[in-house]
Amino acid sequence: IKYPIYHLDCETFPSPLPRFYGERCYTQSCFEASLHIEREPSLCSKENDNYIFLATSLEDERLELVKFLVEHIKPDGTLMAQNVSFEMGRLYELANIFTDYKEKLLAIRDCGYDLLYILKNNAKIEKDLGFKESFCVNYYNNLQSGSYSIKKTLPLFTNMSYKDLEIKNGTEAYISYISYEDVSKEEKEVIRKNLKIYCSQDTYAMVEILRGLRKLVK
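Above: the chain sequence. Below: its structure as tokens.
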């Protein structure tokens, strides 16, 4: 892993019908992205190193999202996510729609690394490190109940939790987003605040999980 680590999480709306140019039925259309930048091991502030893009309307704001991504994420480090193939897929889709930014978006995508490679395992990485065969996962706690969901692993390393958040998962996030035009201006601002809290927790959770793993193996 090269530093800085760009912890990225995207919130998307899988619209049954295409909403914008270049989309298809059930395209995971991005409306929010949270980024925490960890410049050195454990050197990442929950507030000061967090950058968020959140669409202000149900109109097409994907170009603003693309500009946000290329401004804050550089191909000089590691792009990290949990199930990073999801974020890499969104970068690839955006690159093929906004071709002026294609080279930069694909360079970011090529730096992708999955938190699950560390928590669970990755056969190719272990082979490159000299292990002939992987027999078990790297980390497991019975409290996970067989799940490597970030909502299951985060409480194992910190007192952070999703149960007290107004928005607790991705489905609640996109349902909140598509209600923009059905609520008052004041209610919309509350929704936007809760969307930012939820998405930023997803990215800071990765910082905390890595910090907890470092302590375990020190």
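The mean pLDDT is 95.
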